[in-house]
Design goal:
single chain, 478 residues, five-stranded mixed β-sheet, five-stranded antiparallel β-sheet, 31 strands
């Protein structure tokens, strides 16, 4: 028994020493990987002709895969936009392992190893030839080029939505929607200049959405802003009364309409309005805005529109539209009857989105906690659709949320949100990724069309519901 105990202790000691020796090959690398809380993807770049045959690379792969990283082998000049990069270089009798962040290219760890650590094993006599059918190898996964980005700028206050105004020498002018009103800022690559703000005549409003567009063709954009006044009752629940105005995008945000008290939107340079239902999200047709006697008001003629409310459907052109369905599915439909188009469903994981909500009273209360007054539910909360912005060519942009909060209390946020592009090709939809992902939650975005590649301004937040620190960041597509 004593000999068995001694043998067991010896084996444990040898195993511990071997593990320590293996770990000591790259201590700085392992420490940085253990502290990494972002997307667990590593682009492994090297100057080796056959990196997978190298013993060091094989040891690295075992380590990285066991730690839950997805590894993408690539050449040294390959670009990465997410997760980490790990460069393996041979120089002056040494090999170096250089770990960096893909988002900004910053290096975070460096380990050096003697070149003989990864030397090829000695050749042994060749065995008898065996004929094996060649297996076709899958082509390497493409690595998207990095998008041009400026650093995120911290902005104070609870910003709910943004809309572009104009671009000039000073920078890009944006309208920020808050629960107090609208604020104009000028955004440059280095700072944010707060210019003007306007307060609403009503108090206790909850901000929902804002759009911009040139409604009258004078080169000055107008704004369509939407708020909710939540009226609470102990036994009747919550009823969200809508308040919306058209504002001038120039100067001090002069109101260009009365309170329209309904859903309001600007898309493709047209103002649109729809009434909220008594017991439903929308009631009646969608109507265009008309300019009459110095003010905008809803017209009487209804527009041909697909199914869904004003914020859920977005026209691509005169004959088709994109519609958000239940559970965040996106589908292309035909206008004006709303019939689904062949190949028009995008089977994408858009991720859960936390945006504005509207409370609508139920026609009949539902009893869920008994039959007393305290146990009945009298309203339903409807989430508003995430933003879709279209260009003059019929291309659409929207938010794809892949960032999660992790396990409650012990987990950390991981993954990236990004703005994606939706294009049509022979009647079918496909998704493209022209912009880099960000390791923050995208609450809203503003698309800036210009010659060459488009640009977006992201409204970011540390929390998915917008309750954390807010940031603005500019990204240019490649």
């Amino acid at each position: 028994m004593k000999r068995l105990s001694t043998l067991f202790c010896t084996l444990v000691l040898l195993l511990t020493c071997s593990l320590a020796a293996a770990a000591s090959q790259w201590p700085r690398l392992e420490a940085a990987l253990s502290a990494w809380e972002g997307e667990r993807t590593i682009t492994l770049r090297s100057d080796l002709s056959d990196p997978l045959a190298d013993p060091l690379v094989q040891s690295l792969l075992e380590k990285l895969l066991s730690d839950g990283f997805a590894v993408l082998p690539a050449s040294l000049d390959a670009q990465a936009t997410a997760g980490l990069t790990l460069d393996l270089r041979s120089l002056s009798g040494q090999q170096s392992l250089l770990l960096g962040r893909a988002t900004d290219g910053a290096f975070i760890a460096l380990d050096k190893l003697p070149l003989q650590t990864t030397s090829a094993p000695k050749e042994s006599p060749a065995p008898a030839p065996v004929t094996v059918a060649a297996r076709p190898q899958a082509p390497p996964l493409p690595v998207p080029p990095p998008a041009k980005a400026t650093g995120a700028l911290r902005i104070d206050g609870k910003i709910v939505a943004i809309a572009p105004l104009e671009k000039n020498r000073e920078g890009l002018s944006l309208a920020l929607l808050t629960e107090k009103g609208i604020e104009r800022i000028t955004l440059t690559d280095r700072d944010i200049q707060r210019v003007k703000s306007t307060k609403l005549p009503l108090k206790n409003l909850r901000a929902l959405s804002i759009d911009s567009g040139d409604l009258d063709g004078d080169g000055i954009p107008e704004l369509a802003a939407l708020w909710s006044e939540d009226r609470h009752s102990i036994y009747d629940g919550t009823d969200s009364h809508l308040h919306s105005w058209v504002f001038s995008g120039n100067g001090d945000f002069t109101p260009l309409s009365d309170d329209l008290e309904g859903f309001l939107r600007i898309t493709q340079g047209k103002g649109l309005w729809q009434q909220r239902g008594k017991n439903s999200l929308a009631d009646g047709p969608i109507r265009p805005l008309l300019f009459d006697e110095g003010k905008y008001r809803p017209g009487t003629k209804s527009l041909p529109w697909g199914p869904g409310d004003l914020l859920a459907a977005t026209p691509l052109d005169a004959t088709s539209a994109l519609v958000w369905r239940e559970k965040n599915s996106l589908e292309a439909v035909r206008l004006p009857d709303g019939a689904p188009l062949p190949g028009g469903v995008l089977l994408e994981d858009w991720g859960p989105f936390v945006g504005g909500e509207v409370a609508i009273p139920l026609a009949e209360p539902e009893f869920r906690l008994g039959f007393g007054r305290e146990g009945r539910v009298t309203e339903q909360w409807y989430p508003l659709a995430r933003r879709i912005v279209t260009t003059t060519e019929g291309t659409a942009y929207t938010i794809q949320r892949r960032r999660t909060e992790g396990i409650p209390l012990v987990g950390h946020p991981s993954g990236q949100d990004r703005v994606v592009r939706i294009v049509q090709n022979n009647g079918e939809l496909r998704i493209e990724h022209p912009f880099a992902g960000v390791e923050a939650y995208i609450l809203d975005f503003a698309l800036v069309e210009k010659q060459g590649s488009p640009e977006v301004v992201l409204l970011l937040n540390e929390k998915p519901d917008g309750s954390g620190q807010a940031y603005l960041q500019r990204l240019q597509a490649q």
